[in-house]
Design goal:
Number of strands: 46
Shape: flat
Strand content: 35-45%
C-alpha cells in the first residue's frame, strides 16, 4: 500500500472516530516526547464524565507505520496500555491537594457535597438544578486537567506511554471500559508521529499600558488558540533579571469568539510603586501543563500623581498679629508635584481664597499671612504634575482678643394669640461679632434660662410660650458674643404680656375603613385659626391605655395606620392642638382590621447583570409574619411572563443562570402566605443580558 495513501485513510479514520459536539463521546489529544507519548482526553458531556468515572477508561494503541512501511492489519498490533483507568479514591487526594491548588479544585468537583437548590413541589426545577450542578462539576474538572498534570492524572484523564519504539507511528483509541446499551459512548482517537516535534511558540503582540500604580497587559491569542489553553503573566522587579508570576492561577480568556477583539486578551496588574521600571512577559500553558517560550519583554513606569496624598498642616498659629502656617508632605511623593498654594477662609465651609501670588516651590514648607482676620481657616494645596490637586484639611488660627462686645439695646417685642413671642433689638456694631444668645424667665425674681440652642446671627428671635398659665408676663434678656466667644453683659429685661386663650374645636372623622393590611382615617379640617397640629391616638378595644401614633401637620386631613394586626378591633382618637398648647375634645372612631388576603407588594428589589459570571442576580428585603415563600415570574425575549421559580421564605436572593446572550428578561416577585394570602405583584424589572 502507498504510504501517503495510508496516511490519508488514517486521517479519515480519525475524522470518523471524533464525535460531534452533540454526540456522547471522548475527545483526545497527544504530545510526543523523546521517549514517550503523553495522552490527554476528556468526555464531551457531564453525563459521559459521570458514567466513565464509574466504569473507567481503556487506552488502546495501534501501530500503523513501522520502519516507514504501513502495517497492513493494524488490529494485529493492538496493545492495551491502560485498562479501567478511574479517578483516584478520595483518601488518596489529600496530600496532593495540599500541594496543588488545581488538584484541590478537581477533588471538590469529584467528591464535594451538593449545594443544589431544589423545590420539592416542582420536579422539573429540581431536575434543572441537578443538571446545572453536574455541568459545573464537569466543566471545573476539565479546566483543572488543562492546568495541572497532577489533577489530570488523578482524575484518570491523562496517561504517559513509555513503551514506544523508534520509526513507528501510532493510533491511540480511548473507550469506556463497559458500554451502557441505552447510552452508547463514542470512542476518541488520535494519530501520533513521535518523530514530529512541536515547538511551543512565544505569545505575540504583547503590549503594556501603565497608569497610576497599575498596568494593563494585552496580547494576541488568535495565532496559538489551538496550542495554549491558558496563559501566565510574569513580572520582573529587578530590571529583567528574574521573572515571577503575578497571580497564583493561570489566566484563561473567557471572551466569546463573536466579541469585538475576541483574539486579544487583557490582564490588569497592580504595581507596588510609581517611578520605577517594571518588566513583563507572557508565557503560554498547554493542556499538558507545559510552559511555552516566553514572549518578548515589555517594560514601563507607573505614572505618579498628587491625588490621594494629603499635605498635612502641622503648625498654624498667631505670631505678633500674623498667622504662621507650616506643613508636611511625604518626601517620596515630592517628585510628583509642581508646588503648593495656601488658601484662607472665614469658616470651614469656605470659600477659600489663595494667598500666594505665585506657586510655592517644592522645597518650601511654611508661609506667613501678614493680614489675617479674627478667625482664619487655612488649607494647603499640592499641585500634581499630572494636573490633579490634593488639599489638606482646614486648620484654624485666631487672633488674640479679650474685649467683649457691648450689651444689646432697644429690646421690643410681642406675643401672638398662638403663643409666639417675637423679640427684636438694635444690632451691635462690632466687626468680630458672631451672634446673640437669648434668655427667658417667668419672673424677674427667678434665674433667666438660655433658650437658644446655639448663637443666632440676626437681632431677632421667635419663642413659643404657653398661654395655659396664670402667669401673665414672660421676660427676656439678650447677650452678644464675638468670634473669640467673649460675652457681653445682659441687656435690660424685656417684659411681654401673654394673650387670652381659647381651646380649638373638634375635627370629626368622615372616614374610617380597613383596606389591605392597614386602616385609613379621614377627618374634617379644624375650624380654629390657631391650630398647631393633629394628634392620633390608638387603643385596643377594651383597654383604657392609649398610644400616640403620630403628630401630624395642621394641613393634614388623613392618616394611614399600617402597624395593625388583621382581625383585631381598634379605637382611634383625634385631638387638635393649637399654637398655645391647648387641646380639643377627642373625636372617636372604632374600626376592625379585616383580612382581605392582600399584602403589600415587595418594594426593595436590587438587580445585577453579571456578564462575566453568566448570571443575573436578584435581591430583595421583605419581612412579614406567616410568609410561605416567594413566586418569581419571568419572561425571556418576547415570550409572555409566567411563573418561573418558587423560592423558600428564608431566601432573599435568586441567581438566574439559565440565560442567553442578547436577550431581554423581565422579572416580577410576589409573596405568598401560609393562610392563602398573597402580596400585590411587584413592579416589573427589565434587564438586558
Amino acid at each position: 500500500m502507498n504510504y501517503y495513501k495510508a496516511i490519508s485513510l488514517l486521517v479519515g479514520l480519525l475524522i470518523t472516530l471524533r464525535s460531534e459536539s452533540q454526540t456522547p463521546g471522548i475527545k483526545v489529544i497527544a504530545r510526543a516526547k523523546e521517549d514517550s507519548v503523553v495522552l490527554r482526553w476528556g468526555p464531551t458531556s457531564a453525563l459521559v464524565w459521570e458514567m466513565a468515572n464509574k466504569v473507567g477508561y481503556v487506552v488502546k494503541r495501534y501501530t500503523v507505520v513501522r520502519q516507514g512501511e504501513v502495517v497492513k492489519d493494524a488490529n494485529q498490533t493492538r496493545v492495551i496500555i491502560g485498562n479501567q483507568i478511574k479517578p483516584w479514591p478520595l483518601e488518596k487526594w489529600e496530600n496532593i491537594a495540599k500541594k496543588d491548588k488545581y488538584a484541590a479544585i478537581a477533588a471538590q468537583a469529584l467528591y464535594g457535597k451538593s449545594f443544589t437548590l431544589t423545590n420539592p413541589s416542582t420536579n422539573a426545577m429540581q431536575f434543572a438544578n441537578q443538571s446545572a450542578e453536574r455541568d459545573n462539576r464537569w466543566s471545573f474538572a476539565l479546566f483543572t486537567a488543562d492546568q495541572s498534570v497532577s489533577a489530570a492524572t488523578c482524575m484518570g484523564l491523562r496517561l504517559v506511554d513509555r513503551s514506544i519504539r523508534k520509526n513507528e507511528k501510532y493510533l491511540y483509541r480511548i473507550t469506556v471500559f463497559q458500554q451502557n446499551k441505552n447510552y452508547p459512548i463514542d470512542s476518541g482517537a488520535v494519530y501520533v508521529d513521535p518523530s514530529e516535534k512541536l515547538e511551543l511558540p512565544p505569545p505575540e503582540e504583547v503590549k503594556a499600558e501603565f497608569g497610576d500604580q497599575s498596568v494593563m497587559i494585552q496580547w494576541n491569542t488568535l495565532y496559538h488558540e489551538t496550542i495554549y489553553s491558558s496563559y501566565r503573566v510574569e513580572r520582573s522587579d529587578d530590571e529583567g533579571k528574574t521573572f515571577k508570576p503575578t497571580d497564583e492561577l493561570s489566566f484563561t480568556s473567557a471572551r466569546p469568539t463573536y466579541a469585538a477583539n475576541s483574539h486579544v486578551s487583557y490582564y490588569l496588574d497592580s504595581i507596588p510603586q510609581n517611578n520605577k521600571v517594571y518588566f513583563y512577559r507572557v508565557v503560554g500553558v498547554t493542556p499538558f501543563g507545559e510552559m511555552g517560550q516566553p514572549s518578548e519583554v515589555v517594560k514601563g513606569v507607573g505614572l505618579g500623581s498628587a491625588n490621594g496624598v494629603i499635605a498635612v498642616v502641622t503648625i498654624a498659629e498667631e505670631r505678633n498679629g500674623t498667622a504662621y502656617i507650616e506643613w508636611k508632605y511625604p518626601a517620596e511623593n515630592l517628585m510628583n508635584i509642581k508646588g503648593f498654594a495656601i488658601a484662607r477662609a472665614a469658616s470651614t465651609k469656605g470659600p477659600f481664597i489663595d494667598l500666594n501670588t505665585k506657586i510655592i516651590e517644592v522645597g518650601t514648607n511654611s508661609f506667613i499671612d501678614k493680614t489675617p482676620g479674627p478667625i482664619n481657616y487655612y488649607v494647603v494645596r499640592a499641585f500634581g504634575k499630572d494636573g490633579k490637586t490634593t488639599t489638606s484639611f482646614p486648620y484654624m488660627v485666631q487672633l488674640e482678643d479679650n474685649t467683649p462686645p457691648s450689651a444689646p439695646m432697644q429690646l421690643k417685642g410681642s406675643v401672638s394669640k398662638q403663643g409666639i413671642a417675637t423679640i427684636q433689638w438694635a444690632p451691635n456694631k462690632e466687626t468680630d461679632l458672631i451672634g446673640y444668645r437669648v434668655f427667658r424667665a417667668n419672673s424677674l425674681n427667678e434665674e433667666f434660662v438660655q433658650i437658644t440652642k446655639d448663637v443666632i446671627k440676626e437681632p431677632i428671635f421667635e419663642d413659643s410660650v404657653t398661654l395655659n398659665t396664670l402667669t401673665r408676663k414672660v421676660f427676656y434678656k439678650v447677650i452678644a458674643s464675638d468670634l473669640r466667644y467673649n460675652l457681653s453683659d445682659y441687656s435690660a429685661p424685656l417684659a411681654l404680656e401673654r394673650p387670652d386663650i381659647i381651646p380649638p374645636s373638634q375635627s370629626p372623622f368622615t372616614l374610617s375603613e380597613s383596606k389591605g393590611t392597614a386602616i385609613y382615617l379621614r377627618w374634617e379640617p379644624c375650624s380654629s385659626e390657631d391650630i398647631s397640629n393633629y394628634q392620633i391616638f390608638r387603643s385596643n378595644m377594651g383597654d383604657t391605655a392609649r398610644m400616640l401614633l403620630k403628630e401630624l401637620p395642621k394641613d393634614t386631613t388623613s392618616y394611614r395606620d399600617g402597624a395593625v394586626q388583621l382581625g383585631k378591633r381598634y379605637k382611634y382618637q383625634l385631638v387638635v392642638k393649637d399654637s398655645t398648647g391647648l387641646f380639643s375634645k377627642p373625636s372617636v372612631a372604632v374600626v376592625t382590621c379585616v383580612d382581605y388576603g392582600v399584602r403589600p407588594a415587595i418594594q426593595e428589589i436590587l438587580t445585577k447583570v453579571d456578564r462575566e459570571g453568566k448570571r443575573i442576580i436578584l435581591q430583595w428585603n421583605y419581612k412579614m409574619e406567616g410568609l410561605k415563600g416567594f413566586q418569581l415570574y419571568r419572561s425571556a425575549g418576547e415570550s409572555p411572563i409566567r411563573l418561573y421559580q418558587f423560592i423558600e421564605p428564608d431566601k432573599i436572593q435568586f441567581i438566574d443562570r439559565e440565560i442567553r446572550a442578547n436577550t431581554k428578561y423581565v422579572y416580577q416577585l410576589r409573596a405568598v402566605f401560609k393562610g392563602g394570602a398573597e402580596s400585590e405583584m411587584s413592579q416589573s424589572l427589565t434587564l438586558n443580558y
